[in-house]
Amino acid sequence: MTSATGNDTGSAGSSSGFGSPCGACKFLRRKCAADCIFAPYFCSEQGAARFAAIHKVFGASNVSKLLLRIPAHQRFEAMLTLAYEAQARVRDPVYGCVSHIFTLQQQGREYIVESWNLKDN
Ligand SMILES: [Zn+2]
């Protein structure tokens, strides 16, 4: 059930910056346009640091192209996962967030074995 209103990105959300660029444009040292695709997700203050990892791993151009292909109501979720993956990839260039998944899977198996042991006693 998608009750999406038929309009495009919804420019109401990006009305915060009077002259101050969003965090992404600040990091890229470019002028932040009124319809900047990054503005709703990267505030002017802390956004630049968050955007740095995303740009390093995926590239700003690739991320903007990707966002344009995603429905507007899902873009915030997409940015969250991209930011998470980028930070994981910066920490661990080989496995990225997969190392975290492996750790959680191993913990899950340990908890299952532990629960079996508790049942036996
Ligand atoms: Zn911007």
UniProtKB/TrEMBL annotation:
Domain of life here? Eukaryota
> Transmembrane stretches, by residue range?
none
Where in this chain does the record put each LOB domain? 20-121
Any one GO BP annotation for this protein: hormone-mediated signaling pathway
Q: Which InterPro entries match?
A: LOB
- What's an example GO cellular component term for this entry? nucleus
Q: Which family does it belong to?
A: Belongs to the LOB domain-containing protein family.
Q: What is this protein called?
A: LOB domain-containing protein
What is the originating organism of this protein? Glycine max (Soybean)
